[in-house]
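F.,

This is the one I mentioned.
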């Protein structure tokens, strides 16, 4: 692909919360966070030429190939089916691009400048797109996250922030300035958005308003004129629409005397076209006691909910008038329902997702089930196919196909022509890189329980080829699990000769209430024992030897890596922790002053585990060398966790190296940072465990 100079100019600013003088003594001033817009002629290429061009320029270093972020994620189809939009992360920033599916012309529209992240983008109508954005700002010494919504024409013009913009009259922080609830196919000039309405102070002749709380607004996508649909509701957790685009349900947190959110949520519904709300249910926010809203039935008379059933989570239907108990739609004696699957612009319910060793959808819509099976067969039968989007007339479907050894390719299926054509590879620079198969396994824990896991071996290797260096790689969350499919982090190290085990330790979700327990913080001893047993199993099987065994984790996985090294100092010879939690009491204290404090405190709990289960407080037991990474704008786990851990280890004379990335959040979402992280980790692990 021929490179051309990119002409850029600044678009309209995106406001962010900031500390400033305010007539009412609260924050409300503006900080300009900029997005940069590409001119429409900056880059253009045919889809057929894009992947080979990138492949020709791919770096030789294996860590660089895996560290470069995807060139296409979040792809969506325009309502008329003639264009797709996608976010390109590969060039050091996030860029929204569109492409003509007939000509292959690619037009870059807008890119971030590092202050705000584009998390998702979609078509609001045939001519206009919208992007949900997240950022963070320092307010009174606390890192505060905020959300905004940006709209732009497909020709790159009329960039505008939609939703509430902060003004000097606002009392409080404009933290939730706009979140998309729904597009409106029957009214394509408007969308529905939720935002937090702030009180306004009186200034001169302008009258202030005492109304505050979360509202739903019907927003003009061109000029941001708004009309209130629902609210304000003080402690609203979410709003949702039915399949016709009408707001029919909301969730509301219980409130405490200090206005913090409590651990109970009430669900309120209303009839189509109605104005009065009735309480549908009250539910605990505990993982396996909650009734979770999933979506509306096509006729709008029922809601789909995920509920506890015989020790697992099942999908059920519940009439909105409460005339009968929930009716089970899908359940499994061994696995949880993942959630309702919806499809198309009206979010029609089509199935339920669930996972065992693989990923599955149990379809209600048999036509879609047959279509998906036909597409899988057409692509060779060894792929997972996910139907992403369809044109508003239903004739064109956007899908992605991937597997454990194939990072993913987007395709367009034309129903009328019966044609399936590839559009774009997600990670084109890995096209010719050999990848290791990710095999489901299980191994015995110390108490006899069988722990499900995934084992990725170096390409072309079998277990009989051991011993080889081993990485145990526990997942984050901890209320999460690992799934079968392509995993860039595991594959990075498998490609360099490491065996990688990823355990779904007890505390993981998806396997039922007993498996989840209280969670892997409060039941840390069980979770950590399961994780260390993965290494013991591999040693016993001859896959590795103890002197070649390391552990690497991100977020809770980083916590687990450090805590494992503290509990069993002789087992692991090297520890890599990325954005780790290092102190459970601090994790609770980090939420002081935020509305969600009680929810965090409930999750972490109280008791001796706050000390015994905190790696920083057990650092004197760690013998293995430690490598830490963290971003300074991490709002999930504050950077102080890694800073204090590194300081503690250094004071104890323990071997530790700490790498900090300025202005990056929990995901380290920048190619240069990920490449550096992978290069330093690979060098460290090869040195400590022996080069493969």
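My design for it:
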């Amino acid at each position: 692909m021929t490179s051309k100079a990119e002409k850029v100019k600044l678009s309209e600013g995106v406001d962010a919360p900031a500390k400033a003088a305010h007539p009412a003594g609260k924050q409300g001033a503006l900080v300009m966070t900029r997005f940069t817009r590409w001119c429409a002629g900056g880059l253009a290429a045919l889809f057929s030429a894009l992947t080979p061009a990138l492949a020709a320029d791919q770096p030789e270093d294996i860590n660089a190939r895996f560290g470069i972020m995807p060139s296409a994620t979040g792809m969506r189809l325009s309502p008329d089916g003639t264009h797709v939009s996608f976010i390109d992360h590969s060039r050091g920033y996030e860029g929204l691009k569109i492409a003509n599916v007939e000509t292959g012309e690619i037009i870059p529209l807008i890119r971030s400048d590092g202050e705000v992240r584009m998390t998702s983008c979609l078509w609001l109508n045939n001519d206009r797109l919208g992007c949900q954005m997240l950022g963070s700002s320092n307010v009174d010494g606390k890192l505060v996250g905020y959300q905004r919504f940006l709209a732009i024409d497909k020709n790159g013009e009329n960039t505008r922030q939609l939703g509430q913009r902060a003004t000097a009259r606002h009392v409080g922080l404009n933290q939730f300035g706009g979140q998309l609830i729904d597009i409106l196919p029957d009214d394509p000039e408007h969308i529905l958005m939720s935002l937090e309405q702030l009180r306004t102070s009186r200034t001169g002749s302008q009258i202030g308003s005492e109304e505050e709380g979360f509202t739903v607004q019907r927003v003009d996508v061109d000029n941001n004129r708004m009309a209130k649909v629902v609210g304000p509701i003080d402690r609203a957790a979410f709003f949702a629409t039915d399949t016709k685009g009408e707001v029919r349900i909301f969730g509301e947190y219980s409130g405490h005397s200090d206005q913090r959110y409590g651990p109970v949520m009430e669900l309120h519904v209303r009839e189509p076209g109605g104005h009065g709300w009735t309480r549908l249910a009250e539910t605990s926010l505990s993982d396996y006691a909650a009734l979770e809203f999933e979506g509306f039935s096509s006729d709008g008379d029922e809601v789909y909910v995920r509920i506890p059933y015989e020790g697992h989570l099942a999908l059920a239907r519940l009439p909105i008038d409460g005339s009968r108990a929930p009716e089970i739609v899908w359940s499994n004696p061994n696995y949880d329902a993942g959630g309702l699957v919806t499809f198309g612009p009206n979010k029609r319910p089509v199935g339920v997702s669930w996972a065992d060793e693989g990923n599955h959808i149990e379809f209600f819509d048999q036509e879609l089930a047959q279509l998906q099976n036909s597409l899988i067969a057409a692509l060779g039968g060894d792929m997972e196919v996910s139907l992403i989007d369809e044109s508003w007339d239903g004739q064109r479907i956007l899908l992605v196909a991937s597997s454990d050894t194939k990072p993913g390719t987007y395709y367009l299926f034309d129903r009328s022509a019966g044609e399936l054509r590839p559009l774009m590879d997600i990670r084109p620079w890995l096209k010719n890189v050999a990848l290791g198969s990710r095999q489901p396994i299980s191994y015995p824990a110390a108490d006899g329980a069988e722990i499900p896991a995934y084992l990725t071996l170096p390409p072309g290797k079998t277990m009989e080829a051991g011993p080889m260096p081993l990485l145990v790689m526990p997942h984050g969350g901890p209320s999460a699990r690992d799934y079968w499919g392509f995993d860039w982090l595991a594959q990075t190290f498998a490609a360099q000769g490491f065996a990688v085990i990823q355990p779904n330790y007890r505390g993981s979700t998806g396997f039922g209430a007993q498996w989840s327990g209280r969670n892997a913080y409060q039941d840390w001893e069980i979770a950590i024992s399961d994780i260390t047993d993965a290494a013991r199993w591999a040693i016993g099987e001859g896959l590795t030897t103890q002197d070649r065994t390391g552990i690497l984790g991100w977020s809770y996985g980083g916590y687990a890596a450090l805590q494992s090294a503290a509990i069993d100092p002789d087992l692991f010879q090297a520890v890599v922790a990325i954005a780790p939690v290092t102190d459970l009491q601090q994790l609770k204290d980090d939420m002081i002053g935020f509305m969600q404090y009680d929810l965090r405190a409930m999750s972490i709990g109280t008791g001796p585990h706050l000390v015994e289960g905190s790696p920083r407080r057990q650092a004197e037991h760690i013998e293995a060398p430690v490598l830490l990474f963290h971003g300074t704008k991490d709002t999930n786990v504050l950077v102080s966790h890694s800073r204090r851990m590194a300081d503690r280890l250094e004071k104890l004379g323990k071997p530790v190296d700490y790498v900090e990335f300025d202005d990056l959040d929990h995901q380290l979402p920048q190619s240069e940072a990920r490449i550096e992280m992978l290069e330093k980790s690979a060098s460290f692990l090869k040195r400590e465990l022996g080069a493969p």
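The mean pLDDT is 87.

Talk soon.
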